[in-house]
Amino acid sequence: MPVLLVFDTSGERLSAGLVTDHGRWLHEGPGGARASAGLVPALGQLVAEAGCTFRDLDAVGFGQGPGAFTGLRTACAVAQGLAEAVGRPVLPLDTLEAVALDAWRRAGAAQPARVWAVQDARMDEIYAGAYEVEAGGRSRPIQVPDLWTADSLSAVWSAPPASQASARWPMLIGGTAVAVCGERLRCATARFDPDAWPSPDALLDLALQRHAAGAARPAAAARPAYVRDRVALTTAEREARAAAQGPAR
What we know:
The chain has about 250 residues and is of the alpha/beta class. It folds into two domains: about 110 residues, Nucleotidyltransferase, domain 5, CATH 3.30.420; about 100 residues, ATPase, nucleotide binding domain (Nucleotidyltransferase, domain 5, 2-Layer Sandwich). About 35% of the residues lie in helices and about 25% in strands. The protein is built from seven helices and ten strands. A five-stranded mixed β-sheet has the order 3-2-1-4-5, sandwiched between helices. A five-stranded mixed β-sheet has the order 8-7-6-9-10. Strand 4, helix 2 and strand 5 form a beta-alpha-beta unit.
């Protein structure tokens, strides 16, 4: 069993975990602007609780996104700095794939599923990606992370799945966009989970898969996975959107 330290600061909650031969140590805390101050102490606490040191790590896994720009930069910088300091590689982890694994876990982790991870991207957009999760928890992407609208996702979900092998599998849809978008996200055959997130257990499951697949990279190669290069609408764009939506009721 490799010794892996993982964390994600892409959203409003900080997620971190450590796995060794002796078990798992998990941490959850506030994300957003507070993640940059709380992340390093949280990692130190995990290592201390596990009775090891940072030099015992085999790799440092981090949620590379998509997600909030500041959070992605925080996770990338901490992973790179820590990995370089102890001479270990990094494991870039798809944040949406971790959300998908968490949704699958929360659904019972008993059977294969097609899982769409949908995270609120603000500006009335959604970070979304799709994954096939096998009965043992092994996952693979079938739709890479991208920016979507609620209507475009609903249209895709109404079409037959691209993979005939997974056509019979149940479909799960999980992530923060479920609550934010509400009934605008429509799929009559899917189970929705607004509480799915890149949890510590899901991150560790994904990191173990990626480490076994040889996905570790030199620390210098750590990069955030930006899906969007803009973080806000211009004033003109906000006014145009408000005009198109009509007066508030």
